[in-house]
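Sample intake sheet
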Amino acid sequence: MRLLLLGYGYSARASAAALSGSVASIVATARTSAKAAALSDAGIEAIALDCHDAGQRLGEALRQATHLLVSAGPDSGGDPFLVRSRDAIRNAVTFGQLAWIGYYSTVGVYGDTGGQWVDEATPPAPASDRTRWRVLAESAWAEVGRDAGVPIALLRLAGIYGPGRNAFVNLARGTAKRLIRPGQVFNRIHVADIAGVTAAAALRTAGGVFNVSDDEPAPPQDPIAFAAELMGLPVPPDMPFDPKELSPMALTFWGESRRVGNARLRADLGYRLLYPTYREGLRSLWESGTWEGSADDQSDASPRFKRIEG
C-alpha cells in the first residue's frame, strides 16, 4: 500500500499511524513549507502546497498512490484539492494505480432531525452553508471515483474527541460550559476509532457511506459532568441556552439534534468500536494519562471544538 493523505490533521494523522504497518510509503500534503519540514522531521514525506513545484509533486504522488485519504474541508468554492488540481487528480486516478479513496465528511450533512435516528441510507438534508458544501464535496469526490471505477468510502464523522481534544482539557482551562437545550443529543467518536475504521475500510477497499459514530447519542452536558467527576472537580453549573451568546458556528452546532446509527461499521467492515460510548473513551483518556495530548494534538483541535466542546 502506498498512502497519500490530502490534508494531515488530527484524524488523518491517527489513521496514518494505524495503517503504518501495512504501507510501503506515506506521503502527506501540508499547507506551508514550515509544516512540511515538521512532517519530514517526523519521517513523513510531505508536499508543501505553498511551493512552486507543489502541483508537479502532487501529480506524481497521485500517480503512485494506491490509497488516497482526503481530510481537507471544503468552502464556498468547493473542495480545495479538486478546485486546485481537478484535472491532475482525474488523470492520476484514471491512469494511475489507485485502488481506494477515503473522504472524511461529517454527520452534520443529515441536518437537524429533532433527535430522530438517521443511518447510512438517510438522504442528506444539510441545514447550513458548511454542511451544504460538504454534500457537494462528497458528490464531487464520488464522481471522481465512479468515473475511474475506484471505490470511495464517504466516512461521515461524529463529534471528534481524543488526546488534547476532550472535556478534561476545557475543565482544566476553566472554560467548560454546560449549556442546556432540552432534547438536544448527538453522537461522538474517539479518534482511535476513526483511525480503526479508516484502516479497516482502506484494507478492504470498501466503498459507500459509513457513519463513524459511537453507539450512544447523548446530551452535550453529560460528558462534561462525567469528566468532572473523574477529575474530582465540581460539575460546572447548568447554563440556559441563549442563542444571542453564541457565534454563528456555535449556533450551527446547537441548532441541530440527531441520533446517528453506525450499523455498517460492523456489518460491512467487521469493525467493533474500541470506545462505544463517551464513558469508555473518557475513562481511558483519564486513566492512561493521555487526555492532555501532545502539542500536535492540541494544535490540531478544530475551531468548533475550541469554542464549543466541554
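Comment: Residues 303-310 have pLDDT under 50 and may be disordered. The chain has 13 helices and 13 strands.
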